[in-house]
Amino acid sequence: MKELKIESIFQVYNDLNELPNDISILMNRAIEARSKAYAPYSKFKVGAAILLENGEIVAGNNQENVSYPSGLCAERTAIYYAGSQYPDSKILKMAITAASSNQITKNPIPPCGACRQAIAEYEIKQDSPIEIFFMGEIGSIMKSNSLSNLLPLLFDKSAL
Ligand code: THU
After folding, report:
1. Is 18 marked active-site?
2. Which of 4, 104, 130, 149 is deepest in the core (most CB within 10 A)?
3. How far apart are the CA of 127 and the centre of ligand 1, in A?
């Protein structure tokens, strides 16, 4: 028996003012997208904005459904739109923000497990990392240099 230790390193920015200008622009697009989320059941609105290599920014938000599992997270709404509209443009960065109507979300909200798996698919497809920045409604922003940081021991096609 041996142990395997897997470490992840994240950068933490104190607030929006500390972000580099291009990320600040991207996060503001995510905030704008968040405001348009359809989340009547959870009242938890999430916005995601993606910067593509061709300079385009595409954004999405969570879309809920009365049949709960039929809804979709913001990150997958955005990344599937990017994949469907710009299949040949690499995804460089993603900014995510979440806000609840029950409380002020101060902690950075990372993508859920299903979204991590979906984002991983595009990292593998394009063979280059996607930078992920995530925050709550206010407060600090965390950065991961690659999705793989957020999803160790990834299930990939080598297993098929
Ligand atoms: N949600 C996202 O949009 N992204 C995540 O990564 C976590 C959860 C949404 C799904 C649902 O509409 C609401 O937040 C509450 O789970």
Report:
1. no
2. 130
3. 27
Q: By C-alpha distance, which of 155, 149, 153 is closest to 7? A: 149
Give the Cα separation of 23 and 25 in Å (integer).
5
Cβ of residue 111 lying under 6 Å from some atom of ligand 1: yes
What pLDDT is stored for residue 111 in this prediction?
98
CA distances from 145 to 41, 63, 66 (A): 33, 27, 35
pLDDT tens digit sequence for 56-70: 999 999 999 999 999
Dihedral over Cα of 13, 16, 18, 23: its sign = positive
> Is there an atom of ligand 1 within 6 Å of 71 CB?
yes
- CA distance linking residue 6 with residue 21, whole number of Å: 32
Query: Which residue, by CA, sits nearest to atom 4 of ligand 1?
Result: 73
